[in-house]
Amino acid sequence: MVDDQDRVVGTAPRGTVLDDGMNFRTAHVLLFSADLRSLLLQRLASGRDRHAGRWGSSVAAYLQHGESYRQAAERRVQEELGIVPALEDLGTVPTRDRDSTKFVSVFSGEVGDRTVQGDGTHIDELRQWSLDEIDRTLADDPDAFTPTFRVVYARFVDRAAG
For the segment 3-23, what is each residue's pLDDT rounded down to a tens digit? Predict the structure, then answer.
């Protein structure tokens, strides 16, 4: 749990933070192709409680007790995709999630031309999307993406790819 300035004030089980309106931290990772023209996205598993079947960041993680944003990002990329890319810190943005403020720290990296397979319990599908395709889909069907991905993409993709 964190206060309104993103300072740690305690811990809480992940499943309770939104119900109790607590502020919390997440890390999102955007993994680009070698030419920076496409972005690996994951479609969240259909069995998930929130945003099932929607497309989201390459990887997303709730921070565990004592973990930094970077540590959470690196841990989750390894757990979900089995790779260890170099990650660049793009910054943190606060966003509303129900009655909570969620501080989202965003990292970018390169998946290159590697074929990666996702963890089947959290991810139904992984796919490279061209940035143009993401832009078109955001304009035509924004609900195809998670709310947090829409914030992350709008704030960070130009910086990450440029």
Answer: 999 999 988 887 788 878 899
